[in-house]
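ESCALATION

Customer reports they have been waiting on this structure for their group meeting. Please prioritize. Original submission:
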Amino acid sequence: MTRFKIDTENNITAFGSSEQIEDSGGETEIFASRQELATLAKTWPATRLVEIWNSLPGIEPVERFTSQQAAVTRIWKAIQRLEPSAVAPKRPRSVRKPSSGKKPPRVAQKRAGASKTARVIALLERPKGATLKELMRATGWQTHSVRGLISGQLKKKLKLKVRSFKREGERVYSIKPR
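Update from on-call: job pushed to the front of the queue and completed.
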């Protein structure tokens, strides 16, 4: 029976027998059926399932799945074409390829999130402030996400005094320059 190992970087490796799988101290998870994969996936965020799917070779990248079950089913079908690694491999064959997908790796996403916060602050420090639409364009986010950043990150965490008012029927936010 073919068994699969997935590590923290979402690399999936196929093995012909369980003796070949080396224990790596809880950094990997092992599964042999779609049901076992589904059980593991219950604890994963939906973004991890998208990252796993987008890292598989020869598939069309997606931005999200309609459900966790759909994601597990599609991933399971895609990994069935993997060939089991040779006995006691030095470096197991992985399905991970350099991503040409739309989303950057997690580390880059975190940096991008911080730069978006800095971008929003810079816009809000302008003399006229920034409209909600300008903030949405600068971040690529929806209205509720921009308002959440202003309320949670800027006001509560960074303790910035953000003013909100309407100018010509449009919501405008501003802060005093530091």
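Sent to customer with the following note: The radius of gyration is 22 Å.
Escalation resolved.
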